[in-house]
Amino acid sequence: GAGAPDGDGAHVCAATAGGSGARIGGLSFLPPPFAARDRALPAHGVPGARRGSAMALADRLESFRAAQPGCRIAVYTDLAAGMALASAAATPVGQETVDELAATAAALLADPTDDAAADLTPGMTRFAARSPADAEDAICCICAPETDLRALQAAAGELLAALAADQAGRR
Fold it and tell me: What's the CA gap between 91 and 88, in Å, rounded?
């Protein structure tokens, strides 16, 4: 697939035949494995979070999401377990959407050498970033197609590093 910046500096990518994706500026781009189905749930806070206070984690994730222009939903996920630990959304989303976004993170970050990856479609961008401190942890977002991926990657890296530092401080 070919990828190139458009006139606004956002990256546009066409997936390659066979779904192998493309790489642009250190980000991997893959075709979407996502099909959203919604059932009303709270805007954030997935039960069963394994680290720290679930509410504090959900609040931090909501602060991260709200600070990212065009970010509709953010999920903190355990890639090894394939499950969402917390989520934050601009509007309520179904558990299926949260679960599928956790699966999307695993698919986008399937290559262990990728720190971040994105899937661009005309209506949305799916983005995932792996924690620099714990390769099993990741943030995955659904954002507007014009989202600045480099800024999103930097903000996600900061949040993941802070969450890892918090976890290390509790040990």
Answer: 9
